[in-house]
Amino acid sequence: MEESCVLKRTDCRAKGGAPGFKVAILGAAGGIGQPLAMLMKMNPLVSVLHLYDVVNAPGVTADISHMDTGAVVRGFLGQPQLESALTGMDLVIIPAGVPRKPGMTRDDLFKINAGIVRTLCEGVAKCCPNAIVNLISNPVNSTVPIAAEVFKKAGTYDPKRLLGVTMLDVVRANTFVAEVLGLDPREVDVPVVGGHAGVTILPLLSQAKPPSSFTPEETEYLTKRIQDGGTEVVQAKAGAGSATLSMAYAAVKFADACLRGLRGDAGVVECAFIASEVTELPFFATKVRLGRRGAEEVYQLGPLNEYERVGLQKAKKELAESIQKGISFIRK
Ligand SMILES: NC(=O)c1ccc[n+]([C@@H]2O[C@H](COP(=O)([O-])OP(=O)(O)OC[C@H]3O[C@@H](n4cnc5c(N)ncnc54)[C@H](O)[C@@H]3O)[C@@H](O)[C@H]2O)c1
Ligand SMILES: O=C(O)C[C@H](O)C(=O)O
Protein backbone atom coordinates (compact mmCIF):
# COMPACT_ATOMS: atom_id res chain seq x y z
CA MET A 1 0.00 0.00 0.00
CA GLU A 2 2.90 2.35 0.47
CA GLU A 3 3.61 3.90 -2.90
CA SER A 4 6.71 5.49 -4.27
CA CYS A 5 7.17 9.21 -3.83
CA VAL A 6 8.06 9.54 -7.49
CA LEU A 7 4.56 10.13 -8.78
CA LYS A 8 2.97 11.44 -5.61
CA ARG A 9 3.78 15.00 -4.70
CA THR A 10 1.59 14.59 -1.62
CA ASP A 11 4.07 12.12 -0.14
CA CYS A 12 6.93 14.44 -0.97
CA ARG A 13 5.05 17.27 0.72
CA ALA A 14 4.75 15.22 3.89
CA LYS A 15 8.38 14.18 3.82
CA GLY A 16 9.39 17.75 3.14
CA GLY A 17 8.26 18.65 6.63
CA ALA A 18 4.87 20.33 6.23
CA PRO A 19 4.04 21.87 9.59
CA GLY A 20 2.16 19.57 11.90
CA PHE A 21 2.44 16.27 13.71
CA LYS A 22 2.59 12.68 12.51
CA VAL A 23 -0.18 10.56 13.99
CA ALA A 24 -0.86 6.82 13.71
CA ILE A 25 -4.16 5.11 14.51
CA LEU A 26 -3.87 1.37 15.28
CA GLY A 27 -7.24 -0.32 14.77
CA ALA A 28 -8.22 2.35 12.25
CA ALA A 29 -10.81 0.26 10.41
CA GLY A 30 -12.93 -0.38 13.50
CA GLY A 31 -16.04 1.20 14.94
CA ILE A 32 -13.99 3.82 16.76
CA GLY A 33 -11.09 3.83 14.31
CA GLN A 34 -13.06 5.00 11.25
CA PRO A 35 -14.73 8.12 12.69
CA LEU A 36 -11.52 8.81 14.63
CA ALA A 37 -9.54 8.69 11.38
CA MET A 38 -12.04 11.04 9.76
CA LEU A 39 -11.87 13.54 12.61
CA MET A 40 -8.06 13.41 12.81
CA LYS A 41 -7.91 14.07 9.04
CA MET A 42 -9.85 17.27 9.81
CA ASN A 43 -7.40 18.34 12.54
CA PRO A 44 -5.12 21.15 11.29
CA LEU A 45 -2.36 20.08 13.71
CA VAL A 46 -1.92 16.78 11.83
CA SER A 47 0.38 16.68 8.79
CA VAL A 48 0.63 12.90 8.33
CA LEU A 49 -1.99 10.32 9.31
CA HIS A 50 -1.10 6.61 9.28
CA LEU A 51 -4.05 4.19 9.39
CA TYR A 52 -3.16 0.65 10.50
CA ASP A 53 -5.43 -2.36 10.96
CA VAL A 54 -5.37 -6.10 10.38
CA VAL A 55 -8.41 -5.79 8.07
CA ASN A 56 -9.84 -3.21 5.66
CA ALA A 57 -7.13 -0.56 6.10
CA PRO A 58 -6.84 0.02 2.31
CA GLY A 59 -10.55 0.82 1.97
CA VAL A 60 -10.69 3.19 4.91
CA THR A 61 -7.49 4.87 3.74
CA ALA A 62 -8.73 5.38 0.18
CA ASP A 63 -11.97 6.82 1.52
CA ILE A 64 -10.44 9.20 4.09
CA SER A 65 -7.65 10.27 1.73
CA HIS A 66 -10.16 12.00 -0.58
CA MET A 67 -11.02 14.59 2.09
CA ASP A 68 -9.58 17.96 1.03
CA THR A 69 -7.79 18.71 4.30
CA GLY A 70 -4.06 19.10 4.90
CA ALA A 71 -3.02 15.76 6.40
CA VAL A 72 -1.45 13.19 4.08
CA VAL A 73 -3.04 9.77 4.71
CA ARG A 74 -1.30 6.41 4.29
CA GLY A 75 -2.70 2.95 4.97
CA PHE A 76 -0.97 -0.10 6.46
CA LEU A 77 -2.43 -3.61 6.51
CA GLY A 78 -1.41 -6.39 8.85
CA GLN A 79 1.55 -7.18 11.06
CA PRO A 80 4.24 -7.02 8.32
CA GLN A 81 3.38 -3.32 7.84
CA LEU A 82 3.18 -2.36 11.52
CA GLU A 83 6.74 -1.04 11.66
CA SER A 84 6.25 1.19 8.61
CA ALA A 85 3.03 2.47 10.14
CA LEU A 86 4.80 3.47 13.35
CA THR A 87 8.15 4.81 12.19
CA GLY A 88 8.53 8.53 12.83
CA MET A 89 5.19 9.02 14.61
CA ASP A 90 4.70 11.75 17.24
CA LEU A 91 1.39 10.40 18.54
CA VAL A 92 0.01 6.85 18.41
CA ILE A 93 -3.70 6.33 19.16
CA ILE A 94 -4.71 2.71 19.91
CA PRO A 95 -8.38 1.70 19.64
CA ALA A 96 -7.53 -1.86 18.44
CA GLY A 97 -9.30 -4.79 20.04
CA VAL A 98 -12.68 -6.35 20.65
CA PRO A 99 -15.60 -4.41 22.18
CA ARG A 100 -18.16 -5.62 24.76
CA LYS A 101 -21.48 -7.33 24.11
CA PRO A 102 -24.40 -7.09 26.56
CA GLY A 103 -23.69 -8.97 29.79
CA MET A 104 -19.91 -8.60 29.53
CA THR A 105 -17.63 -6.51 31.74
CA ARG A 106 -14.65 -4.67 30.30
CA ASP A 107 -12.45 -7.18 32.11
CA ASP A 108 -14.00 -9.96 29.99
CA LEU A 109 -12.10 -8.39 27.05
CA PHE A 110 -8.73 -8.89 28.75
CA LYS A 111 -8.08 -12.34 27.24
CA ILE A 112 -8.09 -11.04 23.66
CA ASN A 113 -7.10 -7.40 24.04
CA ALA A 114 -4.12 -7.90 26.36
CA GLY A 115 -2.19 -9.73 23.63
CA ILE A 116 -3.19 -7.20 20.95
CA VAL A 117 -1.99 -4.28 23.10
CA ARG A 118 1.27 -6.08 23.90
CA THR A 119 2.07 -6.66 20.23
CA LEU A 120 1.23 -3.11 19.20
CA CYS A 121 3.23 -1.60 22.07
CA GLU A 122 6.24 -3.74 21.17
CA GLY A 123 6.02 -2.07 17.78
CA VAL A 124 5.85 1.38 19.36
CA ALA A 125 8.90 0.61 21.55
CA LYS A 126 10.86 -0.44 18.48
CA CYS A 127 9.80 2.16 15.92
CA CYS A 128 8.71 5.35 17.72
CA PRO A 129 9.84 5.08 21.36
CA ASN A 130 9.41 8.82 21.90
CA ALA A 131 5.82 8.99 20.67
CA ILE A 132 2.96 9.89 22.98
CA VAL A 133 0.62 6.89 23.26
CA ASN A 134 -3.15 7.33 23.75
CA LEU A 135 -4.47 3.92 24.77
CA ILE A 136 -8.21 3.35 24.24
CA SER A 137 -8.42 -0.48 24.10
CA ASN A 138 -10.26 -2.00 27.07
CA PRO A 139 -9.89 -2.85 29.85
CA VAL A 140 -7.94 0.43 30.11
CA ASN A 141 -7.29 -0.22 33.84
CA SER A 142 -5.19 -3.24 32.77
CA THR A 143 -4.01 -2.36 29.25
CA VAL A 144 -2.13 0.75 30.43
CA PRO A 145 -0.11 -1.32 32.96
CA ILE A 146 0.51 -3.87 30.17
CA ALA A 147 1.85 -1.15 27.89
CA ALA A 148 4.05 0.22 30.70
CA GLU A 149 5.56 -3.23 31.29
CA VAL A 150 6.22 -3.71 27.56
CA PHE A 151 8.00 -0.36 27.40
CA LYS A 152 9.99 -1.12 30.59
CA LYS A 153 11.12 -4.42 29.09
CA ALA A 154 12.24 -2.62 25.94
CA GLY A 155 14.01 0.08 28.00
CA THR A 156 11.90 2.86 26.46
CA TYR A 157 9.38 3.57 29.23
CA ASP A 158 8.59 7.21 29.88
CA PRO A 159 5.53 7.41 32.17
CA LYS A 160 4.71 10.91 30.92
CA ARG A 161 4.10 9.61 27.40
CA LEU A 162 1.71 6.75 28.17
CA LEU A 163 -1.87 7.94 28.64
CA GLY A 164 -4.99 5.81 29.11
CA VAL A 165 -7.91 7.61 27.49
CA THR A 166 -10.70 8.32 30.01
CA MET A 167 -11.97 11.37 28.15
CA LEU A 168 -15.30 9.71 27.34
CA ASP A 169 -16.10 9.62 31.06
CA VAL A 170 -15.51 13.38 31.24
CA VAL A 171 -17.56 13.97 28.07
CA ARG A 172 -20.44 11.95 29.55
CA ALA A 173 -20.14 13.68 32.93
CA ASN A 174 -20.29 17.10 31.27
CA THR A 175 -23.33 16.07 29.22
CA PHE A 176 -25.34 14.49 32.06
CA VAL A 177 -24.51 17.25 34.57
CA ALA A 178 -25.48 19.90 32.02
CA GLU A 179 -28.83 18.12 31.53
CA VAL A 180 -29.54 18.21 35.28
CA LEU A 181 -28.45 21.84 35.64
CA GLY A 182 -30.19 23.00 32.47
CA LEU A 183 -26.90 24.29 31.01
CA ASP A 184 -25.10 24.01 27.67
CA PRO A 185 -22.64 21.05 28.08
CA ARG A 186 -19.88 23.22 26.63
CA GLU A 187 -20.10 25.40 29.74
CA VAL A 188 -19.62 22.44 32.09
CA ASP A 189 -16.38 20.79 33.22
CA VAL A 190 -16.46 17.82 35.58
CA PRO A 191 -13.23 16.07 36.59
CA VAL A 192 -13.52 12.27 36.52
CA VAL A 193 -10.79 10.39 38.38
CA GLY A 194 -9.83 6.79 39.23
CA GLY A 195 -10.04 4.48 36.24
CA HIS A 196 -12.27 3.43 33.35
CA ALA A 197 -14.66 0.68 34.52
CA GLY A 198 -17.72 0.68 36.78
CA VAL A 199 -16.99 1.93 40.29
CA THR A 200 -13.43 2.91 39.32
CA ILE A 201 -15.00 5.78 37.32
CA LEU A 202 -15.30 8.48 39.99
CA PRO A 203 -16.83 11.81 38.93
CA LEU A 204 -15.95 14.64 41.32
CA LEU A 205 -19.23 16.56 41.21
CA SER A 206 -18.07 18.72 44.12
CA GLN A 207 -15.40 20.15 41.78
CA ALA A 208 -17.72 20.70 38.80
CA LYS A 209 -17.48 23.96 36.95
CA PRO A 210 -19.49 26.12 37.15
CA PRO A 211 -19.62 25.49 40.92
CA SER A 212 -22.95 23.76 41.59
CA SER A 213 -24.67 21.96 44.42
CA PHE A 214 -26.51 18.68 43.93
CA THR A 215 -29.10 16.95 46.11
CA PRO A 216 -28.16 13.47 47.39
CA GLU A 217 -30.57 12.01 44.79
CA GLU A 218 -28.96 14.00 41.96
CA THR A 219 -25.49 12.95 43.14
CA GLU A 220 -26.49 9.29 43.20
CA TYR A 221 -28.24 9.48 39.81
CA LEU A 222 -25.37 11.32 38.12
CA THR A 223 -22.59 9.18 39.57
CA LYS A 224 -24.34 5.95 38.57
CA ARG A 225 -25.21 7.22 35.10
CA ILE A 226 -21.62 8.31 34.44
CA GLN A 227 -20.24 5.01 35.78
CA ASP A 228 -22.69 3.00 33.68
CA GLY A 229 -22.53 5.18 30.55
CA GLY A 230 -20.61 2.53 28.60
CA THR A 231 -23.07 -0.20 29.58
CA GLU A 232 -25.99 2.06 28.58
CA VAL A 233 -24.57 2.17 25.03
CA VAL A 234 -23.66 -1.54 24.95
CA GLN A 235 -27.26 -2.44 25.88
CA ALA A 236 -28.79 0.01 23.39
CA LYS A 237 -26.60 -1.42 20.60
CA ALA A 238 -27.82 -4.90 21.62
CA GLY A 239 -24.84 -6.94 20.47
CA ALA A 240 -23.56 -4.59 17.77
CA GLY A 241 -20.71 -3.25 19.91
CA SER A 242 -20.04 -0.41 22.33
CA ALA A 243 -19.61 3.36 22.10
CA THR A 244 -17.84 4.29 18.86
CA LEU A 245 -19.01 7.75 17.74
CA SER A 246 -18.94 9.48 21.13
CA MET A 247 -15.63 7.68 21.76
CA ALA A 248 -14.14 8.92 18.50
CA TYR A 249 -15.24 12.44 19.48
CA ALA A 250 -13.67 12.03 22.94
CA ALA A 251 -10.48 10.49 21.51
CA VAL A 252 -10.03 13.41 19.11
CA LYS A 253 -10.68 15.93 21.89
CA PHE A 254 -7.96 14.23 23.92
CA ALA A 255 -5.53 13.74 21.01
CA ASP A 256 -5.93 17.40 20.06
CA ALA A 257 -5.05 18.37 23.65
CA CYS A 258 -1.93 16.16 23.44
CA LEU A 259 -0.90 17.79 20.14
CA ARG A 260 -1.46 21.31 21.54
CA GLY A 261 0.74 20.29 24.46
CA LEU A 262 3.41 18.97 22.08
CA ARG A 263 3.25 22.28 20.19
CA GLY A 264 4.03 24.08 23.45
CA ASP A 265 0.64 25.61 24.24
CA ALA A 266 0.29 26.63 27.89
CA GLY A 267 -2.43 25.46 30.27
CA VAL A 268 -3.60 22.32 28.44
CA VAL A 269 -5.23 20.23 31.18
CA GLU A 270 -7.30 17.05 30.75
CA CYS A 271 -8.03 13.88 32.74
CA ALA A 272 -6.11 10.70 31.86
CA PHE A 273 -5.21 7.31 33.39
CA ILE A 274 -1.49 7.52 33.99
CA ALA A 275 1.44 6.46 36.20
CA SER A 276 0.78 8.40 39.35
CA GLU A 277 1.78 9.07 42.94
CA VAL A 278 -1.53 10.72 43.80
CA THR A 279 -2.68 7.55 45.62
CA GLU A 280 -0.80 4.43 46.74
CA LEU A 281 -1.68 2.81 43.38
CA PRO A 282 0.89 2.89 40.55
CA PHE A 283 -1.71 4.18 38.04
CA PHE A 284 -4.64 6.50 38.57
CA ALA A 285 -6.71 8.89 36.47
CA THR A 286 -6.59 12.55 37.44
CA LYS A 287 -6.18 15.86 35.72
CA VAL A 288 -2.79 16.18 34.01
CA ARG A 289 -1.07 19.11 32.30
CA LEU A 290 -0.03 18.22 28.77
CA GLY A 291 3.16 19.68 27.37
CA ARG A 292 6.06 19.04 24.99
CA ARG A 293 7.06 15.88 26.88
CA GLY A 294 3.56 14.49 27.44
CA ALA A 295 1.87 14.67 30.84
CA GLU A 296 4.32 17.06 32.47
CA GLU A 297 2.32 17.52 35.66
CA VAL A 298 -0.08 15.17 37.45
CA TYR A 299 -2.53 17.06 39.64
CA GLN A 300 -3.62 16.01 43.13
CA LEU A 301 -7.25 15.01 43.73
CA GLY A 302 -8.21 18.22 45.52
CA PRO A 303 -10.85 18.34 48.28
CA LEU A 304 -13.41 15.49 48.20
CA ASN A 305 -16.78 15.35 49.95
CA GLU A 306 -17.84 12.33 52.03
CA TYR A 307 -19.67 10.66 49.10
CA GLU A 308 -16.56 10.94 46.94
CA ARG A 309 -14.28 9.68 49.73
CA VAL A 310 -16.38 6.51 50.01
CA GLY A 311 -16.36 6.18 46.20
CA LEU A 312 -12.58 6.56 46.18
CA GLN A 313 -12.10 3.58 48.50
CA LYS A 314 -14.30 1.38 46.29
CA ALA A 315 -12.51 2.58 43.17
CA LYS A 316 -9.05 1.87 44.58
CA LYS A 317 -9.97 -1.68 45.63
CA GLU A 318 -11.07 -2.70 42.13
CA LEU A 319 -8.31 -0.71 40.42
CA ALA A 320 -5.56 -2.41 42.43
CA GLU A 321 -6.66 -5.82 41.09
CA SER A 322 -7.01 -4.68 37.48
CA ILE A 323 -3.59 -3.01 37.52
CA GLN A 324 -1.95 -6.09 39.01
CA LYS A 325 -3.61 -8.30 36.40
CA GLY A 326 -2.05 -6.20 33.64
CA ILE A 327 1.40 -6.19 35.22
CA SER A 328 1.33 -9.97 35.81
CA PHE A 329 0.36 -10.60 32.17
CA ILE A 330 3.79 -9.36 31.06
CA ARG A 331 5.89 -10.36 34.08
CA LYS A 332 4.52 -13.93 34.31
N1 LIG B 1 -11.34 3.97 26.55
C1 LIG B 1 -12.62 4.13 26.28
O1 LIG B 1 -13.29 5.02 26.80
C2 LIG B 1 -13.29 3.23 25.27
C3 LIG B 1 -14.54 3.61 24.73
C4 LIG B 1 -15.13 2.78 23.78
C5 LIG B 1 -14.51 1.60 23.39
N2 LIG B 1 -13.31 1.26 23.94
C6 LIG B 1 -12.61 0.04 23.51
O2 LIG B 1 -12.00 0.26 22.26
C7 LIG B 1 -11.79 -1.00 21.59
C8 LIG B 1 -12.26 -0.94 20.15
O3 LIG B 1 -13.65 -0.74 20.09
P1 LIG B 1 -14.40 -0.69 18.66
O4 LIG B 1 -15.83 -0.46 18.95
O5 LIG B 1 -13.68 0.22 17.72
O6 LIG B 1 -14.18 -2.21 18.18
P2 LIG B 1 -14.23 -2.77 16.67
O7 LIG B 1 -14.28 -4.25 16.77
O8 LIG B 1 -15.29 -2.09 15.90
O9 LIG B 1 -12.84 -2.31 16.07
C9 LIG B 1 -11.64 -2.79 16.55
C10 LIG B 1 -10.65 -2.80 15.42
O10 LIG B 1 -9.41 -3.31 15.92
C11 LIG B 1 -8.84 -4.09 14.90
N3 LIG B 1 -7.83 -4.99 15.43
C12 LIG B 1 -7.99 -6.19 16.04
N4 LIG B 1 -6.79 -6.71 16.33
C13 LIG B 1 -5.86 -5.84 15.88
C14 LIG B 1 -4.45 -5.83 15.87
N5 LIG B 1 -3.72 -6.82 16.39
N6 LIG B 1 -3.83 -4.76 15.32
C15 LIG B 1 -4.55 -3.73 14.81
N7 LIG B 1 -5.88 -3.70 14.78
C16 LIG B 1 -6.52 -4.75 15.31
C17 LIG B 1 -10.02 -4.83 14.27
O11 LIG B 1 -9.68 -5.34 13.00
C18 LIG B 1 -11.05 -3.72 14.24
O12 LIG B 1 -11.01 -3.01 13.03
C19 LIG B 1 -12.53 -2.02 22.45
O13 LIG B 1 -11.61 -2.70 23.27
C20 LIG B 1 -13.46 -1.18 23.30
O14 LIG B 1 -13.83 -1.80 24.49
C21 LIG B 1 -12.70 2.05 24.85
O1 LIG C 1 -18.35 0.32 27.80
C1 LIG C 1 -17.55 -0.15 27.00
O2 LIG C 1 -17.32 -1.36 26.93
C2 LIG C 1 -16.83 0.76 26.06
C3 LIG C 1 -16.23 1.96 26.70
O3 LIG C 1 -15.34 1.62 27.73
C4 LIG C 1 -17.25 2.95 27.17
O4 LIG C 1 -17.09 3.48 28.27
O5 LIG C 1 -18.18 3.26 26.40
Automatic annotation (TrEMBL):
Binding site for substrate: 100, 106, 138, 172
One Pfam family this sequence matches: Ldh_1_N
Family matches, as InterPro entries: L-lactate/malate_DH (IPR001557), Lactate/malate_DH_C (IPR022383), Lactate/malate_DH_N (IPR001236), Lactate_DH/Glyco_Ohase_4_C (IPR015955), Malate_DH_AS (IPR001252), Malate_DH_type1 (IPR010097), NAD(P)-bd_dom_sf (IPR036291)
Lactate/malate dehydrogenase N-terminal domain mapped to chain residues: 22-164
GO terms of molecular function: L-malate dehydrogenase (NAD+) activity
Domain of life, per lineage: Eukaryota
UniProt-annotated binding residues for NAD(+): 27-33, 53, 113, 136-138, 247
Record SUPFAM superfamilies: LDH C-terminal domain-like, NAD(P)-binding Rossmann-fold domains
Active site: 196 (proton acceptor)
Lactate/malate dehydrogenase C-terminal domain boundaries: 166-329
Top EC class of this enzyme: oxidoreductase
NCBIfam families in UniProt: MDH_euk_gproteo
PANTHER family: MALATE AND LACTATE DEHYDROGENASE (PTHR11540), MALATE DEHYDROGENASE 2, PEROXISOMAL (PTHR11540:SF52)
Family assignment from sequence similarity: Belongs to the LDH/MDH superfamily. MDH type 1 family.
Oligomer status and interactors: Homodimer.
Protein name per Swiss-Prot or TrEMBL: Malate dehydrogenase
Organism in which the protein naturally occurs: Populus trichocarpa
